[in-house]
Each structure stands twice: as structure tokens, then as C-alpha cells.
């Protein structure tokens, strides 16, 4: 178990720690765990970047309805231009 995972067990409601774990899991291709961590973040804070990565997790997990909803919320949260561009691309691919 990594240090971050141990810390998460000790501080399960910490949105910053959850975001770190969520982004790490996303980058490692573990979209299911990433979505779990990021959803915990969003239970405590409105975070556009977390919404973006949650939407991307759902897209990778073939959950288009959830992906579309999260990415639309992320765009409304004023994402940085590079993430906004990616979100718009994925939204155009979701039917």
C-alpha cells in the first residue's frame, strides 16, 4: 500500500488527497479507482479539474451518459483551455 493510500485511509474526506489519488489512478489507467476517488472529492468540493477527469474516467469505462454530464459540468466550471478543448472533443464523440 502506498503512502498516499495509507493517508487516504486516515483522512478519507480530504478532497486534496482524494484528487491526488484520483489523478494518479487515472494516469495509471485505473479508471474505476480514479472515478471513486474523484467522486469523493466532488462530494466535498466543486472542482472543475476533478469533474474533467471524472468525465474522462467514465468515457474510458464506456459510460457515455455519466461522461457527458461530468464533462458538461467541468466546462461550466471554467477549465483551463487545454482541458476544455479535450472535453469538447470527447463530448462531440458521445452520441
What do these coordinates show?
It is a single chain. The chain is an all-alpha fold. It is built from 6 helices and no strands. The chain has helices spanning 3-10, 15-27, 31-44, 48-60, 64-76, 81-93. α3 packs antiparallel against α4 (48-60) and α5 runs antiparallel to α6.
Key attributes of the depicted protein:
95 residues, 6 helices, mainly alpha, globular, 78% helix
Rg value: 13 Å
Flag low-confidence runs.
Answer: none
The chain-level structural class is mainly alpha
Largest sheet: none
Task: Output mean pLDDT.
Answer: 89
The first-to-last residue Cα distance is 39 Å
DSSP helical segment count: 6
Shape: globular
Helix content: over 70%
β-sheet strand percentage:
under 5%
Which H/E pattern describes the elements? HHHHHH
Write the layout of secondary structure elements.
Blueprint: H1 3-10, H2 15-27, H3 31-44, H4 48-60, H5 64-76, H6 81-93
Helix pairs in contact: 1-2, 2-3, 3-4, 4-5, 4-6, 5-6
Short description:
It is built from six helices and no strands. The chain is an all-alpha fold and 95 residues long.
Amino acid at each position: 500500500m502506498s503512502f498516499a493510500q495509507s493517508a487516504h485511509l486516515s483522512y478519507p474526506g480530504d478532497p486534496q488527497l482524494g484528487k491526488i489519488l484520483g489523478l494518479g489512478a487515472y494516469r495509471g489507467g485505473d479508471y474505476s479507482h480514479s472515478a471513486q476517488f474523484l467522486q469523493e472529492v466532488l462530494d466535498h468540493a466543486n472542482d472543475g479539474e476533478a469533474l474533467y477527469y471524472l468525465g474522462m474516467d467514465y468515457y474510458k469505462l464506456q459510460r457515455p451518459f455519466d461522461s457527458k454530464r461530468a464533462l458538461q459540468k467541468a466546462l461550466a466550471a471554467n477549465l483551463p483551455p487545454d482541458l476544455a478543448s479535450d472535453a469538447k472533443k470527447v463530448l462531440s464523440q458521445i452520441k
